Amino acid sequence: MAASLGQVLALVLVAALWGGTQPLLKRASSRLQHVHEQTWVRQLLQEMKTLFLNIEYLIPFFLNQCGSLLYYFTLASTEREEEREIETSMRDIDWPPPACPLLRIGPTTWDVT
Q1: 89 pLDDT more than 60
Q2: CA of 17: how far to CAs of 21, 38, 58, 66, in Å?
Q3: Are the CB atoms for 74 and 3 separated by under 8 Å?
């Protein structure tokens, strides 16, 4: 089954919300003042206060989170058959593990034959 027109429009709106708010969030977060407190609890509380009292950051953040909720509800309304098709297509792709020194995984080498 194909996705309904409403689902497609919802996903386009999600893309617009996420894509439109990302540059605004980056710009607003670059202008924030740096906070230094003595304990991690006070640090966390001060950072939350700084973020949520900054309207230039708060409005794009709220719109971005609305996009996340819309994405969640759109995916929840899709049929299980569509999910299985996506899962099957993703499972068939050979994903190389990334290089990660923390997990002691070396870089992946591709053998081209």
Answers
A1: no
A2: 6, 37, 14, 8
A3: no
Name, in order, each residue with C-beta under 8 angstroms of 78's C-beta and a sequence gap of 6 or more: 3, 7
pTM for the whole structure = 0.62
Report the C-alpha gap between 60 and 54 in whole angstroms.
11
Please, are residues 78 and 3 in contact by the beta-carbon 8 Å criterion?
A: yes
The whole-number average pLDDT for the span 28-45 is: 87
What angle is formed at CA 111 by the lines to CA 109 and CA 112, rounded to 5 degrees? 135
Q: How far is CA 24 from CA 6, 49, 63, 78, 112, in A?
A: 27, 19, 11, 31, 43
50 neighbors 37 (Cβ within 8 angstroms) = no
How does 64-82 read in b/e, with b if 16+ C-beta sit within 10 Å? Answer: beebeebbeebeeeeeeee
What integer is the mean pLDDT of 11-18?
Answer: 88
**Stretch 82-86: mean pLDDT:** 55
Which tens digits make up the pLDDT trace of 44-64? 999 888 888 889 999 999 999
